[in-house]
Q: What sequence folds into this?
């Protein structure tokens, strides 16, 4: 019996706490412009709270780089509307990159305000952890702004511990894999 509506690997359609359906899937080059458009909708406070180094915009070069991860050392996902890439509004992006010379992975998750607090971050983080374990990494590490209590609480609920960070105003969260 063939499975209907079977999604490709790393693709999952989920329902958020507010009932909205999103598709979590690997990032694709077609996502560069929707990522830039979504980033432009973030307010300065959202950007400051979610990123260690605030960015005034997501440049075309940065978006292109983010949407073309090196499959040997990087993994990136988006949480988007269940529409074709390039047409879908992207509400979240998650990325992990292996740190050269170590068995660590550095992660970053950015969730837009319109889906923040509805479970998308947890869904993305679980997939980053699964990828990191598949790559036999020893630790997953992220830098989180001290004020970003939702992300710190999410990390703690998933087993991350907190450490001092080299960046003022941030906390390093670490998950031993």
A:
């Amino acid at each position: 019996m063939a499975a209907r509506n079977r999604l490709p690997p790393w693709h999952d359609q989920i329902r958020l706490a507010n009932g909205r359906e999103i598709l979590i899937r690997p990032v694709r080059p077609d996502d560069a412009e929707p990522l830039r458009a979504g980033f432009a909708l973030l307010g300065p406070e959202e950007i400051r709270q979610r990123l260690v180094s605030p960015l005034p915009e997501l440049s075309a070069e940065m978006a292109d780089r983010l949407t073309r991860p090196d499959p040997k050392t990087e993994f990136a996902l988006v949480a988007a509307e269940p529409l074709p890439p390039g047409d879908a509004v992207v509400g979240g992006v998650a990325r992990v990159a292996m740190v050269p010379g170590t068995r660590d992975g550095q992660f970053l998750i950015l969730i837009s305000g319109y889906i923040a607090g509805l479970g998308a971050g947890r869904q993305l983080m679980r997939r980053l952890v699964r990828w990191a374990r598949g790559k036999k990494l020893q630790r997953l590490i992220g830098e989180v702004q001290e004020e970003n209590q939702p992300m710190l609480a999410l990390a703690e609920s998933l087993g991350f511990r907190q450490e001092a960070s080299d960046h003022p105003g941030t906390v390093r969260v670490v998950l031993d894999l």
The chain has five helices and eight strands. The CA atoms of residues 44 and 56 lie 8 Å apart. The longest strand covers residues 90-98.
